[in-house]
Amino acid sequence: MIRPRRPRRARALGLAAVLLGALAAGCSGVPGEAGRSADTGFSSWEEGATVDSVAQTLHVDVPPTATRTAAAHRRGHQDDGLILSFVLPAEAVDPFLAQLNPERPLRLREQPFIAEATPTTPFARLGLPEPDSLPHVREGQVCAPCEGDLNWLKVAVAQIDERSSRVYLRGVD
User: Fold this and answer.
1) 10 Å Cβ neighbour count for 89?
2) Disulfide-capable partner of 156 in 36, 99, 131, 160 (CB 3.0 to 4.6 Å)?
3) Nearest residue to 61 via CA among 172, 134, 169
4) Residues with Cβ < 8 Å from 126, sequence gap 6 or more?
5) pLDDT class for 110, splitting at 50, 70, 90?
6) pTM here?
7) In this predicted model, what pLDDT tens digit does every residue of 94-104 receive, in sequence order?
8) 45 C-beta neighbours (distance < 10 Å), count
9) How far apart are CA 18 and CA 151, in angstroms?
10) Cα–chain center distance at 35
11) What sign results for the dihedral spanned by CA atoms 112, 117, 118, 121?
């Protein structure tokens, strides 16, 4: 019996479907937890990370008036991700930003940014919303490249109320 020939395009589409299925099966997991070290072995959250240790790596002095401080350090295969956040009184925000000496003035983003990708160092790790998901955020690049081994550092400031704002810092070392 002679088998009918399948067109090349149908074979290529079938192969692509099999490859995509295999890729999806290998990458499946709980949403928001992509890249977890327990699943991939490529990165892990540093259990002993402190606000002081992360601030030192980011070359940032956390103001003494800062409250509700939180930090995390994610060890990566090649680079480490660092996040640091704290609340400052309104009058301390601009002096803190000035000491960072950003490359350009921070821009005001009025609307939340709708991102499709989950950040590799999500502030959700600290129990905080992503600054991209908030309206009326001042944000910008502080440095790239930065001092020492720090590759880049970004800052975002979200006003909580008339008296205080939350500062978000994200860097790659």
Assistant:
1) 13
2) 131
3) 169
4) 70, 71, 72, 83, 85
5) very high
6) 0.73
7) 999 999 999 89
8) 15
9) 38
10) 12
11) negative
